[in-house]
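Researcher: Re-running this chain for the archive, since the previous output was lost when a drive failed. Same request as before.
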Amino acid sequence: MNRLLCAPYTRAYSFGMNISTRLDQAMQRAGIPSQSALARASGVPQPTINRILKGSGKKGPETNTIAALAAACNVAAQWLTDGTGAMDREPQASPDEAEMIEVSVSAESRKFVPIRVVSRYIHAGIGGHGGDVEYEDHAVLTLPLSWVEEKRLSPSKLVAIRVTGESMYPTLKRGHIVIVNTADNDPRTLVDGKLYAVNHNEKPCVKRLEYTGGQWFLTSDNRLPEFRSRPVDESTEIIGRVITAVENFI
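Model: Regenerated structure tokens:
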């Protein structure tokens, strides 16, 4: 039997090199045996990898997806995208940059910071960051390091939280991902009218903090009666301030 038909992941061969065959080649060279293994290594969902390898879909993979797959396979993102440039990634400059993914984009090298998506975040104490953190399986997105530096943010203090309800509609919709700066969680420096991630019933959610009548309230942008405001009290934990949102994250 043809060994290609017995391969542990789908391979899309064609007469011309495309992103499907390049990803297949990168997986083989990196010793990644299956789509699920690549999903674990890259944070890209397995169905997305399957679509890329099959060459299905009218739209190509997003830049963040390519960056994560390239990093997991230790190849250059530009090569994986269109076959131009060297296949190998440039070596990282120093061990201090281990948390950053370095990829080749266009004619220059840029760096991306991987941010994991949190499903549950409990502080170790007031202002603490070492509590109980649970992450969504394989859910990772990347931010340009240049943007993170411009905002003067620390990558290690950033988490991503998925919007699951309708309370912040139309500002945020179900499925949006918000990037949260956990370094900005001091109750004494809250900014009136800004979005914050907070723990409510031991689950993270996003609310707008408003100061009214000498008291802080968790408010919703959705004005339906069921999304009423709630006062901030001793049971409220501020995870951090929302700095940006990502739409249509797979």
